[in-house]
């Protein structure tokens, strides 16, 4: 079995833990490659991508590796842990279950966001949780929303979140959006601090193509998963749709989505 080990290289504790986990895996006869962040590893013969860290580390790994369709196993070293179900001390037991075939693979919808500038594709981003169009500084922003080229509404406020079902427990939830089961295929449009009180979150089919038109003055950004920002110019068009691939998330302990729901989000 070959395992690609991914960790948060900017946190010393996960760097040290990655070295310890690599030694343990090697002692069990696994082949181990560590993502050093310098070049994309060869994934042809990789069986599992093991990610050490919190949900933020898994988000980065998902954007980088999901398109290769190798199952990803999250080892929780963060706090919330909606995307990682096992602890470091459970790795050995989980690998034994993987070899026996005692696991499931959850497929999570991902997003593709395209920025068009003067009619030409300027930037493409992927996201697992959400993409957000917002201002850099707090001020009113009006964003026309189109679904399949039909204008639906003008969203006036601090911005607009377009989330996957996986992302409905993240920023979208904080802005008042609904929680969806993560294996669903849908797009959740949630206004941020809407100026119009009647403008509520909207859930549409996952195969819809959404478009936002930047009517601001150049102080706006497109943000993917809270980690990657693209500066926008007036007139930029942002197309958001589901990606051509899904994240394959390895589920060895097999807890249901609702098993730790209250524990991770608090009373809702």
From TrEMBL:
Gene Ontology CC entries for this record: cytoplasm
Reaction(s) catalysed by this chain's protein: NAD(+) + ATP = ADP + NADP(+) + H(+)
Cofactor(s) annotated in UniProt: a divalent metal cation
Segments forming a coiled coil: none
Location(s) in or outside the cell: Cytoplasm
Broad class of where this protein is predominantly found: cytoplasm
Annotated catalytic residues: 55
EC number of the protein: 2.7.1.23
Residues reported to bind NAD(+): 55-56, 60, 129-130, 139, 156, 158, 169-174, 227
Function statement: Involved in the regulation of the intracellular balance of NAD and NADP, and is a key enzyme in the biosynthesis of NADP. Catalyzes specifically the phosphorylation on 2'-hydroxyl of the adenosine moiety of NAD to yield NADP.
Family affiliation: Belongs to the NAD kinase family.
Protein name according to UniProt: NAD kinase
Organism: Thermosyntropha lipolytica DSM 11003
């Amino acid at each position: 079995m070959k395992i690609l080990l991914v960790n948060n290289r900017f946190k010393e504790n996960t760097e040290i833990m990655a070295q310890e986990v690599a030694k343990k895996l090697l002692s069990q006869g696994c082949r181990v490659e560590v993502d050093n962040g310098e070049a994309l590893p060869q994934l042809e013969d990789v069986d599992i991508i093991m990610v050490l860290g919190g949900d933020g580390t898994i988000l980065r790994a998902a954007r980088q590796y999901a398109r290769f369709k190798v199952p990803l196993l999250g080892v929780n070293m963060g706090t919330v842990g909606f995307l990682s179900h096992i602890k470091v001390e459970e790795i050995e037991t989980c690998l034994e279950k993987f070899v026996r075939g005692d696991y499931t693979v959850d497929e999570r919808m991902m997003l593709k966001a395209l920025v068009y500038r003067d009619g030409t594709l300027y930037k493409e981003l992927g996201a697992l949780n959400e993409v957000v169009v917002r201002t850099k500084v707090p001020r009113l922003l009006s964003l026309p929303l189109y679904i399949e080229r039909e204008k639906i509404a003008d969203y006036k406020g601090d911005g607009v979140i377009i989330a996957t079902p996986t992302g409905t427990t993240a920023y979208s939830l904080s802005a008042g959006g609904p929680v969806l089961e993560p294996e669903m295929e849908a797009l959740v449009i949630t206004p941020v601090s809407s100026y119009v009180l009647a403008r509520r979150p909207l859930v549409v089919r996952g195969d819809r193509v959404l478009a936002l038109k930047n009517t601001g003055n150049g102080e706006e950004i497109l943000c993917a998963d809270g980690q990657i920002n693209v500066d926008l110019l007036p007139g930029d068009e942002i197309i958001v749709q589901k990606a051509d691939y899904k994240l394959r998330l390895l589920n060895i302990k097999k807890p249901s989505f609702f098993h730790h729901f209250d524990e991770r989000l608090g009373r809702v």
